[in-house]
Request: fold
Amino acid sequence: MGDILNKIIVLIKECGELIVNADRNDIDIENKDGIGNYVTNYDTLIQEKIKAGLARIMPEAAFMGEEGDDNNISNKEYLFVVDPIDGTANFARDLKLSAISIGLLKNGKPFLGVCYLPYVNELYTAIKDEGAYLNGKKIHVSNKLLKDGIVYSGCAPYYEDLRSRSLSLLQSFASNAADFRRAGSAVIELCNIAAGRAEVYFELKIQPWDFCGASIIVLEAGGTLTTIDGNEIDYLHPSSVLASNGMEDYNKYIV
Ligand code: IPD
Reply:
């Protein structure tokens, strides 16, 4: 797998250059379904490049990506799950908080993850049972309790029916934490849990491409990842996600 990982790293870094050097006058922003749900020409371009690259690197694997209707979750042993730009709304607004995520599921479970934050040149990698790394250095979740910790709360604006419960959950977690944040990129938020910079991330509904790549990075960094109810995540379908450093039973904050 090491050779495959190295080839994916080259590919993801090339795509990161496209994000960082994007011509701001050439960004077409289209609305998908619902409030604040965007796709740009760069999302499409980068997904095509990654899809073609992965087909060369590991032709036996199937592919599922955020953009396009060619998602193919056949029952192959290996499935790539890709978000070409996580934090698309940030990219559209030039907020410089976006990431590229490539996850590889083996028989439906997280097996390999490569997430790249091009604006800060941070490359997160993990392979099952081999640890998690940031720019080649091993990382571990923090050992802070929530009272000294930071909570990330994701809530996509287009899931309007989930907003009220998301805010109640944020109120519950944040009033027991040192502080809270929202980056607008689940990949960045999950990678920050893995790197020990924040303690909890939750979101009530999120798509596989938003969490697959970073999930193995959190797990290999010693963190935990479940649904908001503490159940096992289905990595092939939209799910709630509660990721943490595993220092507490967070069930008591679930409202
Ligand atoms: C979104 C971001 C956001 C999260 C949404 C995602 P996208 O991904 O990760 O933080 O709250 O649920 O859909 O659309 O920018 O790839």
Summary: Residues 2-20 form the longest helix (19 residues).
